[in-house]
Amino acid sequence: MAHIVVLGAGLGGAIMAYELREQVRKEDKVTVITKDPMYHFVPSNPWVAVGWRDRKEITVDLAPTMARKNIDFIPVAAKRLHPAENRVELENGQSVSYDQIVIATGPELAFDEIEGFGPEGHTQSICHIDHAEEARLAFDRFCENPGPIIIGAAQGASCFGPAYEFTFILDTALRKRKIRDKVPMTFVTSEPYVGHLGLDGVGDTKGLLEGNLRDKHIKWMTSTRIKRVEKGKMVVEEVTEDGTVKPEKELPFGYAMMLPAFRGIKALMGIEGLVNPRGFVIVDQHQQNPTFKNVFAVGVCVAIPPIGPTPVPCGVPKTGFMIESMVTATAHNIGRIVRGFEADEVGSWNAVCLADFGDQGIAFVAQPQIPPRNVNWSSQGKWVHWAKEGFERYFMHKLRRGTSETFYEKAAMKFLGIDKLKAVKKG
User: Fold this and answer.
1) Which H or E element spans position 62?
2) 153: helix, coil or strand?
3) Of 127, 301, 314, 353, catalytic
4) Which of 68, 140, 154, 319 is positioned for an S-S bond with 351, CB 3.0–4.6 A?
5) What percent of the chain has pLDDT above 70?
6) How far is residue 6's CA from residue 16's CA, in Å, rounded to a whole number?
7) Non-local CB neighbours of 8 within 8 Å, separated by 6+ positions
8) Is 159 a catalytic residue?
9) What pairing do the DSSP bridges indicate for beta strands 72-74 and 29-33?
10) 40-98 residue pLDDT tens
């Protein structure tokens, strides 16, 4: 019998556990360790922040499904991973030993890297359901006394799509409240151009997003880093392509939501051979750590180098379908390993993204996510809004059922030519 531990139960961790249960042997034990027993559908957080969703609508209690799937479930945070000893030390003093482990913790949010930044400072966040609920309260207060709004992503951020999404959702919400005319909006980003997304664009994301910002009277600043944030004031500086720093600017705001840079969680930080200096897990093409061969990683916690140099640091996003492809490759590889074979599956890292604007949206497909690509496509329309809502309901249904991919999803993706695994030549 092999014992496989999944560390984390977010988007990657939950479906990782379900898919592992299908790929490993019946006698093998699967255990999930997570600090939060409730799953929150993070892509819906922008809707929570304007009151279009509440917590109970996007939350799943994982424990009953895990039990039904014969997966052990430990809702206790990890204190430290000891990969040389094949064990996880938990905050309650308990230790869990393993034969194989999949790290799916997601990131730590690095608000502290900028003075006055984040929910404990003067800006809002939609990275977590708790933050989104705080952002909703702040937005309701703001609407009683409207003023300027700043939305965007800070230097080192790697998740730009939700910043654009929330910008246009706010625009729609303000128009519904009939106060949009009282609210100057500015989009501030570390990207070198609008629609870069940490991916050097996908299709015509530059043209589509610039056009939408212009049509909705939203100003923008690119290659911009935040120096500090004070109450009602954000101090920023723009950096030119040759590295020249322009004079500081002070941007007033009555409401601000800025996405932070990410880093690895404290339980992993500084483990030589496992993580890079930011605490992200180093993996090879099989999602396997080169130093500790029984350690795998999926999701936002995986180390991926930037696409290329930019005037202000930009990370690479790990989108939902890309993460699912990591999960599928890892599950198949661990299934082979427990049977005495070598890992041989490689995730496609294809990206399928739906960005909702409240009444329409933009979709893009990148195959693979990191260029050069075989498919590089983006499109806009009202259908994206309905597709995003449909996907929310579908994904929550999958989590409650305890499956990572239904027959219908598999058939639809095959029809569209979008695969989770690369077709690789195997020895």
Assistant:
1) helix 62-68
2) strand
3) 353
4) 319
5) 96
6) 7
7) 33, 34, 103, 104, 105, 106, 299, 301
8) yes
9) parallel
10) 999 999 999 999 999 999 999 999 999 999 999 999 999 999 999 999 999 999 999 99
